[in-house]
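Intended use. Records like the one below are meant for learning the mapping from a protein sequence to its folded structure. Do not use them to infer anything beyond what is encoded.
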Amino acid sequence: MAVFSFWHQGITHAPGMIQRLQWIWQKTHGTDEVKLIAAPESDDLIADEGIDPARLSMQIRSDILRLLLLAKHGGVWVDATLLPSTHLNTWLPGALGASGFFAFYNEHRDRAISSWFLAAQQGDPLIARWRDAFVEYFRTPRQLNKTAPLWTRAAQELRRAINPASFADPSVAGRSSYYPYFILHYHFDKLVRTDPVCAAIWQQTTKLSGSDAGRLKSACVAANGDLDDETMASLFQASPVHKLNWRKPEKFEKLLNFVEAGLSNRLETP
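Structure written out for the chain above:
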């Protein structure tokens, strides 16, 4: 399966940490399978959907791209900050199972999944319908709600507390040009609540919590980048992928050295 990620400026202009993570993905999964999307290709893909990419944040560009690519090609989406600890073939086929879709389960009250890792078989109906709804939503010019008037932000916070999936309802979306940060997740939640096909796919999807994928990051930050080898190795093996923070590269220097030095015996290949 193809592994897609996105960095707007391209790999040669990406921060060193992002370049190292891409190298690890390519080393373990092959350069032909790992595809980093960048401008102008990314902008062209979005513009082809009738959306001006120039008015979108990088977050929303990335959100649209992951749905477009998986709906068209199938495969895997990984945020550029993800570090693999094992080859996808050792666990993902089982996680995809009968549903043909996988996302890590999110334990937050207002959203069901984490979107930094998504996988789908080509033609998966859930991804296709999620793409259609999300693309249609952003064909209308919108702004992140942090720029909204205070009363609008207060009303949206109340809605988020009561029924966050309702942000994706056309009747709600039509009344406001402001969107909440987790709007991608709320579109997913609405689909699996209201669309019988999507609900059935989600019900069949293997539920793996994404919380383990954040523990190594937290430990490295707490240790100021000097996490002991035993703890590092234990946490590294505790999740098939790990979400890091490219804005704090010094916290992960030791970890990346550890991974790069031990690829031959620490990263399992099929």
